[in-house]
Amino acid sequence: MNALSIKLLRFLRNNNLRIGDVVPEKPFRFGFLMGLNPKEQAELDDAMAGLVSIGYLEERTPTRYGSIPLFLTKPGFDHIYSSEFEEATDIGAATMTVQNFNFHGTSNNIQIGNNNTQQIVSAIELLAKEIDKANVPEEAKAEAKGRLAAVFDNPVISGLLSGVGVEALKKLVGL
């Protein structure tokens, strides 16, 4: 069984097919097929024929539109829900989530990704500006900024902010 056949069987499992269920057309067309590269798309008919020949899928009467529906058989069901298939294909392994974002108009302070440190930098920058604007003596402003800088010197906090760059934050505060 080749990698494309395994990918197809994973698709069937992920769609919770049971014995006698037809391969769902919309998820297959607009999900599975669109996720295949051109080489895989060219080899798909052979992969499906291979799964039919070993008895995992069954072809039935063509629809009025000419497509031949494929159904999951008992041997196919037993195989895709077996622990051997799960172990052999790493179904239990972590998967990557893909998200699409659409932005319309103008946006500021956008950062795509996990561990979003831009918010931390923006908050510290805002705090430093507010210290500068505060109606207090310059000595009090200097002390406030010094205490803020001391926070960055704490090993736990500097470790948590390692992606930001503690020295850059100190410069941002004006130290």
Describe the structure concisely for a colleague.
With 175 residues, this protein is mainly alpha-helical. It is built from nine helices and two strands; from the N terminus they run H-H-H-E-E-H-H-H-H-H-H. The termini are far apart.
Describe the structure.
9% of the residues are buried. The longest helix has 16 residues. With 175 residues, the protein is mostly helical. The N and C termini lie far apart (64 Å). Strands 1-2 form a two-stranded antiparallel ribbon. 55% of the residues lie in helices and 3% in strands. The chain is built from nine helices and two strands. Helix 7 runs antiparallel to helix 9. The chain has two domains: 87 residues, Arc Repressor Mutant, subunit A (Orthogonal Bundle); 56 residues, no CATH class.
